[in-house]
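Exercise 7b. Backbone tokens:
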């Protein structure tokens, strides 16, 4: 799962949100690392809906414009949960390797340095 998809699903995990709300939540959740443009977001929302991970929860008119709210489906909750477990397993594996290398004194240069 791509990181933007992970954060879109995470943004919808608590409650249904409209597109702009999803954009803001993704930026907040990622500490500003991921900034979705409207075209990118709506293409992703359409793809995720086609994949059965989310659905349109409701629509409402605000200032003459239609605001569409999206929510996760059970399949979407399951996919997000599976990704969380995958990431957790990978992080645990990497942390164990780092600890082992540190204990052997063979860790080499610090992370982020050449």
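Sequence design result:
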């Amino acid at each position: 799962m791509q990181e933007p998809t992970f954060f879109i699903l995470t943004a919808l995990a608590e409650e249904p949100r409209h597109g702009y709300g999803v954009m803001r939540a993704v930026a907040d959740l990622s500490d500003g690392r991921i900034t979705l443009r409207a075209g990118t977001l709506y293409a992703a929302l359409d793809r995720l809906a086609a994949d059965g991970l989310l659905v349109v929860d409701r629509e409402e008119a605000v200032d003459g414009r239609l605001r569409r709210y999206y929510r996760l489906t059970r399949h979407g909750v399951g996919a997000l949960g599976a990704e969380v477990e995958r990431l957790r397993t990978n992080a645990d594996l990497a942390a164990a390797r780092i600890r082992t290398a540190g204990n052997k004194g063979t860790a080499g240069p610090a992370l982020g340095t050449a």
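Instructor comment: The longest strand covers residues 54-62. The chain has a mean pLDDT of 92.
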